[in-house]
Amino acid sequence: MDALANLLDGPRARGAFLLKVVLDPPWSIHVKDEATLALVTMTRGGGWLMPEDAEPMRVNVGDVVIARGPAPYILADDPATPPKVVIQPGDHCTTLWGEPLAEKLGLGVRTWGDSLDGSTMMLIGTYHMSGEVSRRLLDALPPMVIVPAGTWDSPIVPVLADEIVKDEPGQSVVLDRLLDLLLITVLRAWFARADAETPSWYRAHGDPVVGAALRMIYNDPAHQWTVASLADATGVSRATLARRFTDLVGESPMAFLTDWRLALAADLLQEPDATVGSVARKVGYGSSFALSAAFKRVRGVSPQEHRKTLVAQR
After folding, report:
1. Whose CA is closest to 183, among 61, 60, 20, 40?
2. CA distance 212 to 218
3. pLDDT tens, 207-218?
4. Whole-angstrom Cα distance, residue 194 to residue 116?
5. Across the beta sheet with 92-94, what order do the strands follow?
6. Rg for the chain (alpha carbons), in Å?
7. This prediction's pTM
8. Measured on CA atoms in the order 131, 255, 139, 62, is the torsion positive or negative?
């Protein structure tokens, strides 16, 4: 498993919100849905992305916008066009005054806008995930990213455009997986850019020694890893691994292992049938007491308190 795979290994899209939007100018949409992550793919025409605290950015056909929530933003045909539509939390579409617009602007299955022949077409997919396994990668992204059309190549967008308007058994699962594929493809293109500020732990995957150690931690977090066992598996001394790992990742191997285990535990505790004991065994702790002590020490709350917070947020 690698750094990008971790993003979708845990909190993958489950019942994600997907929509095809077709509009004629002038149009302006104020997105205030508080989604954790959103993808906007411009398949026809173009527009402008206007983050709350940044300059407007041009979005051309073939470009993909990655918006890391929950900050609001505006999509419009022109920066001067005032918002006419608001996407509220829960993916409810309203006027500026809160009047519902879903029926008025509905154009068919998962299709919304003012004209099927509109000069602008976008595919929108949003994740409302609360998992923490992907937090390292999400925190590495700027609030708004535009991946230009010429920097990535994938057949996923035409397939998603065809599937998004279908209403067949299991369609939501098909769309979730297509959205996952689009996300991972676009992220891979973004992090390959020379000007992308990739985090140190991501760059460390390219190191033959530290990258191998990271993959072992990711692939088998329940194993009783030590610096000695990781060093032996990577063919270097303990001192060499410890120094190299800390220099490249920014923390020691054991600190990274603890953080990864607790991130996994935080995700697994969302499952309704999971017990603290069963989660402890899956992430490398010998007992519920050992996991609880580590969780409390690092995160300041017990696993039970963490679970109660997650339930209250749903």
Report:
1. 40
2. 10
3. 999 999 999 998
4. 39
5. 57-59, 47-51, 73-76, 28-31, 85-88, 92-94
6. 22
7. 0.79
8. negative
